[in-house]
Structures are given as structure tokens and as C-alpha cells.
Design brief:
Helix content is 75%, strand content 0%. The chain has 71 residues and is mainly α. Helix 2 packs across helix 5. The longest helix has 18 residues. It is elongated and about 30 Å long. The chain starts with a helix and ends with a helix.
Amino acid sequence: SRRQRQMCIRDRDTPELIQAIKMLSDNDKELLTLYFFDGYSQSEIAEFYGISQKNISKKISRIKKNLRKGV
């Protein structure tokens, strides 16, 4: 759920996470916002972009991996 996704951010990681998010491409930031903060499902985002849900899932996984590297 949206709330669970938002709660996964620990307070001590917040400054580093914000810096890592700033380093993402605009497209990745938009996808991150739609999924983690606006609460859209992967299927809804896929429909919006006109690509498969599996593709969105891969993109989200890549973004999370990049954020872990930056934090």
C-alpha cells in the first residue's frame, strides 16, 4: 500500500535519500513520485506511459537499486 511504501524511509537516511533522488533523471523522479508518493499502482503507471507493467516493475527496481547506491 501507499502508506507502507512511504514508511520504509528511515529518518536517519532522509538527507542522503533526498540527495540521491536529486541525482535521478527527470523521468525516474516522475516515476518515483507516481509510485511511491502519489500511490499509483504499477499497472496504472504502465497504462499512463503505454508500456507493460513488467517494464514499469523493472524501472522501479532499477531506481531503487540506484537510490541504495546513493544512500
